[in-house]
Amino acid sequence: MANTPNVTIIGAGPAGLMAADVLSTQAISVDIYDAMPSFGRKFLMAGKSGLNISHSEDQAAFLTRYTPHTPLADYVSKFGAPDIMDWMSGLGIEAFVGSSGRIFPKQMKASPLLRALLNRLQERGVRFHTRYRWTGWSSNTALTFQTPDGRVEKKSSAMLLALGGASWKRLGSDGAWTELLSGKGVALAPFRPSNCGFSVNWTAYMSDRFAGAPVKSVRLRVKNQPQLQTRSEFVITKTGVESGGIYRLSAALVAALSEARPATLVIDLLPDLSEDAVLTRLQRPRGKASLSKHLNRTLNLSGVKLALLYELTDSTQRADAWRLAQQIKALKLPLVAPAPMDDAISTSGGVRWEALDEQLMLRDLPAVFCAGEMIDWDAPTGGYLITACLATGVAAAEGITDWLSMER
Ligand SMILES: Cc1cc2nc3c(=O)[nH]c(=O)nc-3n(C[C@H](O)[C@H](O)[C@H](O)COP(=O)(O)OP(=O)(O)OC[C@H]3O[C@@H](n4cnc5c(N)ncnc54)[C@H](O)[C@@H]3O)c2cc1C
Q1: How confident is the model at residue 2 (pLDDT cuts 50, 70, 90)?
Q2: Residues 354, 332 share a domain
């Protein structure tokens, strides 16, 4: 078909693959390129501990999860959790809603979904190119790629960049694309780790004895920000804390640390008991029992929770039942710095919203669209990340279709 427009998609993660899925239903020829030897590596990694693809909470609550004052909510309102479940079902993948409201594929893993999607794309004639690293534009406006066979140039009617953020470089998302776009004058926000762990100045006892230990059933909040709290668990690492509840609060903590403000996590070790109830139990006769034994007997505090209490209080605080009850309900853990960005589940930063029009086309580079984590937004874990990647993939594909129809 001589007049069939050709679209180049660069980046085969959830955003790029979703755009390919939408575009491949049109009279458009689609090529998708990725620097890695196979597609969807980070998506597969996301499925390792259960692919949490979206969340079933009502839409008003859902939209509050995303960085406020960005247009992202518009895209997620148009393609959200119910659409994702329908889309999965169309690929033969059944979804289920877990007790926390999170949505997963029934098989939990990402591989059956990725396989079904890649099969459908191939059946529809989408051409796959692995080991093609996009390196920019040649002087005559063609795209340039570094490939195992050397430098290659390609022309296309429109292109979608879905290059991901800047964490887990070994899976392909290395953020190296920022140089290519800033060279063209595209406004970019610096990358920041998100959904990340933090370093803590643990004593040797704490890091040697408790690295890897989960701290279960606690309530976590950020000091001086009472609205930011979560009932969850987290994990002690050799050098700090990570996982679940920590990720959920990480945006505020990273923001504080990047402005050189202190970032303190406040831990309620016994969220099911009021401070009064804790005090009443602490005041029960102790006899000759040590304090640890008394804490264990009266409040069931032992193991890592007890170690945290001793790590973060001094002997004067522990000597007084009233002050000890306060500490048990609001133990303060000063955080030193975010863990290295490459270890973060996601990154914020990237292409600034003002560089994009409503259809996700770069204002200064006509026919070049963006989608996914490479755009400057943030969200906690809970399925919100992949939802936003898929939603912007759909929006950019629709933008490309409109653009091509105007150009014809
Ligand atoms: C351990 C882990 C667990 C996670 N779990 C979840 C979860 O359960 N739920 C959730 O919502 N999110 C989760 N995430 C986050 C989620 O995986 C990402 O937000 C999502 O993959 C981003 O999608 P994307 O399409 O924007 O980019 P990516 O998936 O990062 O894909 C970008 C692609 O672009 C390619 N690329 C980059 N530069 C170039 C170039 N110059 N030339 C060619 N190709 C290039 C890369 O190779 C890569 O394949 C998890 C992440 C990690 C690391």
Answers
A1: low
A2: no
